[in-house]
Amino acid sequence: MALNLHLLRIFTAVAEHGNFSRAAEALYISQPAVSRAVQELEAQVGFALLDRSHRVPALTDAGALLYQYAQRLFTIEQAAEVALGQLQGLERGHLAVGASHTTGTYLLPPLFSQFHQQYPSIRLSLEIANTQTILEKLRTQPLELAFVEGLVTDKEFLVTPWRTDRLVIIAPPNHPLLLRQPASLEQIIKEPYVQRELGSGTREIVEDVLRQKGIELTITIELNSNQAVKQAVSAGLGISIVSDMTIELELANRTLATISVQDLDLTRTLTQVTVKDRPLSRSAATFRALATFL
Fold first, then answer.
1. For the domain that residue 11 is a member of, what is the CATH number?
2. CATH code, domain carrying 140
3. Could you tell me if 155 and 174 lie in one domain?
4. CATH number at residue 176
5. Residue 248 pLDDT level (bands cut at 50, 70, 90)
6. Given phi > 0 = left and psi -120 to 50 = alpha, else beta, which region is 157?
7. pLDDT of residue 277
8. Residue 79 pLDDT
């Protein structure tokens, strides 16, 4: 048996107001309509819900029991309406964003701070990994929105250009090529190279640019984070290519230096990524708008 919630709501009004006429006024319907609704509900449940032998209808045992459950049901309904309203007003909820290493470490934290100031009740999570890992988690729904630096070719995703980023060649501060700048590509390819792991957006961009020029680097070591790459270069394991936003501190402390190179443009586009035809939550849409305009 499935209860008719419309009839149950009318019965609850009768139980709360004590008679049919006041219930009808509260519900803005006629008294006969209220009476018919209660009779239909009684027929549905198979019990008399009201004792009509008195001037003021009284709840039967079945009516009292059903009224108790109706109160719980409509209290939950009201709580759900409040909760949904809070989501709509960004007063509660969870926002899960993914980002590749450079973007997640250097660009998104200030945006998260701004978002948190405006919507402090939204719980935030930021997952940082290489581009391919982030895209896979976006596909399988732990994440709603991603910001990556790698190439995105899967047609399942909606890719929107976000910002530009300049990649630079880094070396230890005592590297010989720093004395003969700008260096040539021929000089660069002779140097040992510290490379990011497969799935890294930086690696994909660098390999794509160098492949077009017919250049192949000599790989010394492969590492899975910008910080590890910078430490390896500083220790003399080779040169590497990273975003210029990742080395401000190292340049200031003179633990790394940049090598300029002739005829090598390493500017890339950072992108926002969502899954096509998957609607964003209100919090995710708001964060995307904030990221776009700040």
1. 1.10.10.10
2. 3.40.190.10
3. no
4. 3.40.190.290
5. very high
6. beta
7. 86
8. 66
Q: How far apart are CA 42 and CA 45, in angstroms?
A: 5
Q: Which domain holds residue 131?
A: 94-161+271-293
Tokens, residue 154? 């899967």
Q: Select from 59, 53, 62 the least CA-distant residue to 18.
A: 59
Question: Confidence class of residue 263 from pLDDT cuts 50, 70 and 90?
Answer: confident
Structure tokens of 61? 């045992």
What distance in Å separates the CA atoms of residue 61 and residue 43, rounded to the nearest whole number? Answer: 16
Specify the residue for token string 């934290």: 109
Residue 169 is predicted with a pLDDT of 96
> Are 241 and 170 in contact, with CB atoms under 8 Å apart?
yes
pLDDT digits (tens, 9 = 90+) for 22-51: 988 888 999 999 899 999 999 999 999 998
Residue 173 sits at φ, ψ, to 5 deg, of -65, -15
Question: How far is the CA of 106 from the CAs of 128, 230, 243, in angstroms?
Answer: 11, 15, 10
Q: What pLDDT is attached to residue 77?
A: 78
CA distance 191 to 177: 10
Say if residue 237 is in the same domain as residue 171.
yes
* Residues 167 and 261 grouped into a single domain: yes
Pairing of strands 267-275, 145-148: antiparallel
Total domains in the chain come to 3
Residue range 253-264: average pLDDT? 92
